[in-house]
Design a protein that fits this description.
mainly alpha; about 100 residues; about 35% helix; 2 helices
Length: about 100
């Protein structure tokens, strides 16, 4: 999407059995991507909004709902006719593994 990103992720489990905090994941993703975007555009300053919306997916039905929403987002926005034709939709076995 030109103005936002959707991610369906499962945080990695640490050695101590806890999971990497979503805030840490988002800070890293936003920081690295903002630096790369600014470098590509020869610009400086914020790229992403400070806030984000997150949701804990609790079962297969909800996971499928979120997955289909993300897949269809570019179609809904009129950017493509088929989700698989949208160049920024990245999906594959590693991306669709659910924890249950």
């Amino acid at each position: 999407m030109p103005d936002h990103v959707h991610l369906l992720i499962r945080p990695l489990e640490t050695v101590s059995g806890k999971y990497i905090a979503l805030a840490k994941i988002m800070k890293t993703l936003k920081g690295v991507s903002a630096r790369k975007i600014n470098c590509q555009l020869s610009s400086i300053g914020p790229v992403w909004q400070k806030e984000s919306f997150d949701r804990i997916v609790r079962d297969d039905e909800e996971w499928r709902e979120k997955y289909e929403y993300i897949r269809g987002n570019a179609v809904k926005a009129g950017l493509t006719e088929n989700p698989q034709d949208y160049p920024w939709l990245i999906e594959g076995d590693i991306f669709i593994t659910r924890p249950w």
